[in-house]
């Protein structure tokens, strides 16, 4: 079957249709993963597999999904995105998603996370887009700190003092 297809579709077939999904990614710089063709309809018969890796064992990875999310529903049986907490095939499932509601942020417990995207032969959607980066526990606290009125008041006085 494969051989026949190769003969029928010589080298002019866009390679990206078959090879632009999956890979090993380094989380030391934030990046994006999308389903093939996003935000256009993903092709049928996809089986993409990504592994995202943080440089240090103490680090964790966070995935943030674009709200524009559309994967064939029906119990996430035929098309789905699945996230696992590690690289093994039996690693804990952090989420398996479909339909048009983007998952909330997903955080790994360690430095490795794997993502699978599967589609069957019929009924596609826009797919998904997610941003991956190293999870920083201090970030939320810093944001809260700068928003507190107690912090802005002294800064304001200092700024005025400079002008005088
Ligand atoms: Ca489908």
TrEMBL record:
GO MF annotation terms: semaphorin receptor activity
Membrane topology qualifier: Single-pass type I membrane protein
Signal peptide annotation: 1-17
Principal place of residence: membrane
Protein name (record): CUB domain-containing protein
Gene Ontology terms describing biological process: axon guidance
Disulphide bond pairs: 21-48
SMART domains: CUB
CUB domain residues: 21-135
InterPro entries in the record: CUB_dom, Neuropilin_MCO_CoagFactor, Sperma_CUB_dom_sf
Cellular compartment(s): Membrane
Any one Gene Ontology cellular component term annotated for this protein: glutamatergic synapse
Keyword Transmembrane helix attached: yes
Keywords of the record: Disulfide bond, Membrane, Signal, Transmembrane, Transmembrane helix
